[in-house]
Structures are given as structure tokens and as C-alpha cells.
């Protein structure tokens, strides 16, 4: 049988491409040698967010007295935590597998290798395909410190480390620092640079740093190799990024450069006609599951003859408490591009829902072009930021103005009404 599309990888990029193809009536064969759902479902986003939720519930026990609730004997059961985490992953994985099968997507449970632009081989069987999508994702960059473990290994621990040293200052490092600090670990973060979250707006970086320090996390900037080593009673987590999974996915004779991630155009096309690459395997790509999912869908649309796509605003989130979410341009980035901008900011200490739920600081900041009022960016550090940001991402994608957004009435009391407050501040600066 000849398939319209052959997909290497069953993570977010791969299964999203498969669903899009099936909905358009294309026949699909998907190759995944490990678990369907990829890193995100099995070893990344989902299990980490379970831990984050659990850690927040545990930390919240000490705050219940504020609400007139008395709780005693609060303790952590790491083995039960791990069991529940696995059960959630398994339930989601089974649901995803079932949906793929219902869509008549053929799943091959072994690694596929591209022989040429129309053939994939897996376990000595050759599959004929019209188009190929490489969605093999990325893997954790190996530690450079002896004895350090990766996030994959940390998630398998059946105990909470008494002392945890984290090498890295990006999103993954911050999330694990927040989680394990709440679970009772003494956490130290060793940064190879001068500050946390270098790719984020500086106000976000400073606010997150202040929050982590307030909760007892030690942050050491510009760490030396000696400082990164264990003192004997620490678990060392290496959170220094991810590397594209390009090894042994295509024969050398095919002529595709896969050395440091695959180079593609805006539609996911490689230099070989009929072969596409999407998600974390792409060179210099933003390694986020939701970005990979959209790229997978767009590759299928390109195969179907849809060639022109508008760029989409990329949302980046940090799942801590309070959450962080950013989209579009920061003020500094906009000015660096020569765009005149103004911003409106609302602190969450004036928001009723926030005051009820937490004592943590937070804010919503929205950025617009000063000449047109078009919204071009937002930075949020507040409760439910990962949900609230969707409205602002849509506004950026649709080139909506401050006035357009003010035409929407948001409920009271709610977290999202702080968006309205920030918009009114912004409108005052535009007049």
C-alpha cells in the first residue's frame, strides 16, 4: 500500500500532522518506536505540570489557616505521587492512541528511517509514501557535570531529594526549582550567565528571581565548574536545554543536512521536495509543544496546496505560582525594531480574585504601537496566566487595537478583568 503521508515521530508535531491529514482524507502511516505522545506527554509537559499542581496543593496546606481551615499531619508520599502521575499519563496516552486508530492512522511501533523521498524502512519493511514529515523532536542535552541527572531521571525518583542543585536558568530549571522547593527540597540554582530567563523580558526575569529567593531558593549567577559539582549529599539536575533528534533518521545518500537540526522554510519544507520537518527537530526552532503542533498542521496544509500562512504569535509559559506567560514583543524588542510603543500595566494586588487566592505579587502588562493602538505584545505574571494569555495572543494575530479589546466585557470578579484595567491604562497613554 502507498500512503499519502509518512510521519516519523508520534509526539505533538507528529500526531497533530496525522490528525490534520486524516481529516483531509489523506492516508497516513506514523512511526513511533517509544510511547505515543512523545516527550511532552510522557516525560515533559504533562508529568511536570502534575508535579507542579501537586507541589502547589502541598504548599497550600500551610496557608489554609488564613481561610479558617485547620489541617494537620500533612505529608508527602512520593511513591503514591509517582503512581498517580503515571496513571494520568497512561490515561491520556491511551486516549490519544485510540483517537489515532479511530482516524484510521496506521501506527508502526518501531523507528522509521528515510531511504529516499518516497520510501521509509522500519524493521526491514519498506513503506511507500508520497510525502514525508520528520517530527522526531528533541532529547535532553547530556549533563557536563559528573553525577548529574536529567529531568527524565528526576521524574523517576521515588523520593524527594533533601538537597537539589539545578544547573541552568531557563524555563525548565525554574519550574523544577519551584516544584521541589515546595515539596521540601533545599534548592540551589547554578546559572552559567548573570540572570535567570535571559530570553524573557527583564521585568519578568527580575520578578521571577525575587519570587524564588523569597521562597528560599538560592540563586548563584556566573557559576564556576567547581560550584556546579556535588558536595556529596546533593542531587544535581542538569537542565541545560534540548538537542534535536536527528541521528539515524535518513540515509546519507538522501542529501539532507541533519547535523544540528533540520533547516526548513516557513512551511516546513526541507531542501528535498516532498520531505518536511516540524517541531523540535527543526534548526533554531522554538521548542514548545503548541508551536510544534501548529507546524505539523501547517505542513499538511502545504501538502494539500495551501501555501500562504500568516505568522502566529508564539506564547511562552512558565508553570509556577504565580504563572508566567508572554506573547509577542516586549517593549525593548519593539524599540529595537524601531517600533514606537507604549505599555499599560495592572498590578494584581488590586484584583479581587487574586487577593482572595494568593499573597504573591503579580502584574499584567500590555504593549501597543503608539501610533495605531494595535496590540503587539503582553507579559503576565499572575494566577491563570497561561489561560489569560490566549486572548492577547488572538488579539496580536488579528491585529486588534486597544479599543477593540475594550469592547469586550470581562466578568467581575475575575482574574481576566485585570486585562481591562491594563487596557484602560494603555488607552490613557494613547490619547
Q: Which features characterize this protein?
A:
431 residues, alpha/beta, FAD/NAD(P)-binding domain, Enolase-like, domain 1, 3 domains, seven-stranded mixed sheet, five-stranded antiparallel sheet, 14 helices, 18 strands
Task: Report the strand count.
Answer: 18
Question: In percent, how helical is the residue content?
Answer: 25-40%
CATH fold group of the largest domain: FAD/NAD(P)-binding domain
What's the CATH C level of the largest domain? Answer: Alpha Beta
What features would you describe in this structure?
The chain is of the alpha/beta class. It has 14 helices and 18 strands. The chain has helices at residues 12-23, 38-42, 45-60, 78-102, 151-154, 171-182, 202-214, 225-228, 289-303, 331-336, 352-357, 385-397, 402-406, 417-430; strands at 2-8, 28-31, 106-108, 113-116, 119-122, 125-134, 138-140, 163-167, 186-190, 218-220, 235-238, 242-244, 275-277, 315-318, 323-328, 341-347, 363-369, 375-382. Strands 1, 2, 3, 4, 5, 6 and 13 form a 7-stranded mixed beta sheet that branches. The chain has a 5-stranded antiparallel beta sheet with strand order 14-15-18-17-16. A 4-stranded parallel beta sheet has the order 10-9-8-11.
Amino acid at each position: 500500500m502507498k500512503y499519502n503521508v509518512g510521519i516519523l515521530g508520534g509526539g505533538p508535531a507528529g500526531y497533530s500532522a496525522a490528525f490534520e491529514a486524516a481529516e483531509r482524507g489523506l492516508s497516513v502511516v506514523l512511526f513511533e518506536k517509544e510511547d505515543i505522545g512523545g516527550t511532552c506527554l510522557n516525560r515533559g509537559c504533562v508529568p511536570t505540570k502534575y508535579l507542579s499542581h501537586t507541589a502547589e496543593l502541598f504548599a497550600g496546606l500551610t496557608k489554609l489557616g488564613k481561610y479558617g481551615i485547620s489541617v494537620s499531619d500533612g505529608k508527602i508520599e512520593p511513591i503514591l505521587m509517582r503512581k498517580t502521575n503515571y496513571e494520568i499519563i497512561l490515561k491520556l496516552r491511551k486516549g490519544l492512541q485510540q483517537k489515532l486508530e479511530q482516524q484510521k492512522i496506521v501506527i508502526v511501533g518501531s523507528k522509521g528511517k528515510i531511504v529516499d523521498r518516497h520510501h521509509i524502512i522500519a524493521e526491514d519493511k519498506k513503506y511507500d509514501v508520497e510525502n514525508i514529515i520528520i517530527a522526531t523532536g528533541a532529547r535532553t542535552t547530556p549533563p557536563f557535570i559528573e553525577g548529574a541527572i536529567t529531568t527524565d531521571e528526576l521524574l523517576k525518583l521515588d523520593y524527594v531529594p533533601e538537597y537539589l542543585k539545578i544547573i541552568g536558568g531557563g524555563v525548565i530549571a525554574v519550574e523544577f526549582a519551584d516544584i521541589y522547593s515546595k515539596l521540601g527540597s533545599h534548592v540551589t540554582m547554578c546559572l552559567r550567565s548573570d540572570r535567570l530567563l535571559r530570553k524573557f523580558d527583564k521585568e519578568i526575569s527580575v520578578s521571577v528571581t525575587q519570587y524564588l529567593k523569597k521562597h528560599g531558593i538560592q540563586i548563584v549567577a556566573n557559576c564556576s565548574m567547581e560550584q556546579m559539582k556535588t558536595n556529596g549529599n546533593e542531587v544535581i539536575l542538569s537542565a541545560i536545554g534540548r538537542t534535536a533528534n536527528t541521528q539515524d533518521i535518513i540515509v546519507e545518500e538522501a542529501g539532507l543536512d541533519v547535523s544540528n537540526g533540520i533547516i526548513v522554510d516557513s512551511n516546513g519544507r526541507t531542501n528535498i521536495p516532498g520531505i518536511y520537518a516540524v517541531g523540535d527537530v527543526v534548526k533554531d526552532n522554538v521548542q514548545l509543544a503548541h508551536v510544534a503542533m501548529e507546524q505539523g498542521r501547517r505542513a499538511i496544509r502545504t501538502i494539500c496546496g495551501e501555501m500562504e500562512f500568516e505568522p502566529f504569535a508564539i506564547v511562552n509559559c512558565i508553570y509556577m505560582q504565580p504563572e508566567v506567560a508572554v506573547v509577542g514583543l516586549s517593549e525593548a524588542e519593539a524599540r529595537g525594531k524601531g517600533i514606537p510603543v507604549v505599555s499599560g500595566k495592572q498590578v494584581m494586588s488590586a484584583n479581587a480574585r487574586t487577593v482572595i487566592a494568593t499573597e504573591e505579587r503579580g502584574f499584567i502588562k500590555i504593549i501597543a504601537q503608539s501610533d495605531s493602538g494595535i496590540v503587539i505584545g503582553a507579559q503576565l505574571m499572575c494566577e491563570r496566566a497561561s489561560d489569560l494569555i490566549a486572548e492577547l495572543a488572538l488579539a496580536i494575530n488579528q491585529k486588534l487595537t486597544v479599543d477593540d479589546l475594550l469592547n469586550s466585557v470581562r466578568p467581575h470578579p475575575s482574574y481576566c478583568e485585570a486585562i481591562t484595567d491594563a487596557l484602560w491604562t494603555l488607552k490613557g497613554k494613547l490619547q
